[in-house]
Amino acid sequence: MADFTSTLSEAVAAYRGEGGARPTTETLVTALLQAEKAAKQQRLSNDFPSLLGKWRLCFATGTKKAQKRGGIVLGKGLYVPKFINIQISFRSTDGADSGQGEIGNQVRLGPVLLQLTGPAHYLGKKNLLAFDFNYLLLSLFGAKVYNQPIRSAKAETEDFYEKSIAKLPFFAFFLITPDLIAARGRGGGLALWIRH
What we know:
Elements: H1 2-16, H2 25-42, E1 53-60, E2 63-65, E3 72-74, E4 78-79, E5 84-92, E6 100-109, E7 112-123, E8 128-131, E9 135-140, E10 143-149, H3 153-160, E11 170-176, E12 180-185, E13 190-195
Antiparallel strand pairs: 1-4, 1-5, 1-13, 2-3, 5-6, 6-7, 7-8, 7-9, 8-11, 9-10, 11-12, 12-13
């Protein structure tokens, strides 16, 4: 357990500019896979309040289709350049114990801000956070250029909690600490965020 914990801690410290070298992308992917395996073996479960707040994306992998066997293979992964601020946020809307809340995903690049928000539902025993984006905000130099529902936001939010998780995007969180969170997305990629 210490191996992946120290690797992830080194990655977070280096990304924040607190010293040390960033682990290679291969080393970080290995550490994330070890953390995921350990969480499954130990059947760890976390609660929704441990996710609440703002988190900055530090590292992500993509996926690619395997040529011979089918299925999905992890991509190499990359550290997100610091000049691009990609942030995810979670807040409770119906009491933290219910697991119902709101997700926000925003990208800031210089004067441009793109933000998506929508409902989220956390299933604690499975460490799954299902979500859907139904509202879009685009601003340039702090002035709102677009601020509208993507579709019928009210109807979508009401229907959201009735939908099967199989029909929704989700993150399967396998590591949640006060400093960092890590998850596998529905598409199979891995992501590491640090507390913002």
